[in-house]
Amino acid sequence: xxxxxxxxxxxxxxxxxxxxxxxxxxxxxxxxxxxxxxxxxxxxxxxxxxxxxxxxxxxxxxxxxxxxxxxxxxxxxxxxxxxxxxxxxxxxxxxxxxxxxxxxxxxxxxxxxxxxxxxxxxxxxxxxxxxxxxxxxxxxxxxxxxxxxxxxxxxxxxxxxxxxxxxxxxxxxxxxxxxxxxxxxxxxxxxxxxxxxxxxxxxxxxxxxxxxxxxxxxxxxxxxxxxxxxxxxxxxxxxxxxxxxxxxxxxxxxxxxxxxxxxxxxxxxxxxxxxxxxxxxxxxxxxxxxxxxxxxxxxxxxxxxxxxxxxxxxxxxxxxxxxxxxxxxxxxxxxxxxxxxxxxxxxxxxxxxxxxxxxxxxxxxxxxxxxxxxxxxxxxxxxxxxxxxxxxxxxxxxxxxxxxxxxxxxxxxxxxxxxxxxxxxxxxxxxxxxxxxxxxxxxxxxxxxxxxxxxxxxxxxxxxxxxxxxxxxx
Length: 474
Fold this sequence. Notes:
Shape: globular
Distance between the termini: 53 Å
Strand content: under 5%
Radius of gyration: 21 Å
Strand order of the largest sheet: 1-6
Oligomer: single chain
């Protein structure tokens, strides 16, 4: 095992990798409950979505660890699942059946897989300017911090200012603060496993304050009803054939673009922290990483779990010292257990429902009052996840260090980097932020006649982003 995962070469050991895998899992565990909640709003069977989410994350994380040997875990992507539910399928299947929606994910995954096999995806990644790559990492750090602040109740939606200070009289906010400060204390004291111990401390606080509870039953039987959704029959025809129509053509393209660049941003950000990004900005073993990730998108559509992608929360495990694929394997095995022991995991990774969630949703102008068992768009505070929120805030801060390496003295480098950094958290979308940076970088370089500093692929990708923004706004 030590030889296969290259412990000595990467300056790690078995204990560190085990801690790293467990920490990454704990910061990602919320997806097992959030993803089915979102997908069920579109008619996807909840029990089946739980099994698909857990097993999809398990299989792909293990494959990433074994094939690419990098500490990158995978799970159903937040953002794409909401787009799939409320824009593609539609609330309670108002537009297309959920099996067809999963077929859209399946097709875009196959297209990305083809781009990886041909080498195009790696070529695009290598074409990204170094300052933009650094900005992507910083932007994702801000994004993770924003997620942690929101999930912990430190901030909440507001009708005019968009966000405001959370209600510090609420127990879940104190759980977040206890988790945050205990993690900071463990880090300052150089305690091994500081983030994991911070999550354990937050769990104890949540139990004492009544934010979570010990489950009555430990076991939960898996359901496979959503598996092979693209090949299920819909209106007398295979669901996959319904997806291969002109009406869903742009939808496939738009989701593919998001999947394409979300992974790139995540890999660069986590890779910088883990030490597998070269000085010129290229990522070691990138072909293997992208191959597994593109296969994960196909698997997500096949299982009925929405698109599975490389998770930015992997940075939590890297912060614990994870440097090899064993960390991802451990995360995957723990996700696999969740298919059978989901009630136990819900105690830590599950959400805490706010008593006044409907008012929060109305303040964000979501347009409808949410059902009790789903998380509609614009209702980010409908459920909070205070036990792991403090850890996310800490991890976000660790990704900020590359901001000092960005060239701030030249506007053609600084402005695109700045727009990338703020675009990712402000749009709540990694791909959109990258698009802002690409388009601005290309436009400024052209305006200053610095044609030699533009890789030909920058023209292609910038045009694709611009087209997607225009079409998406219609």
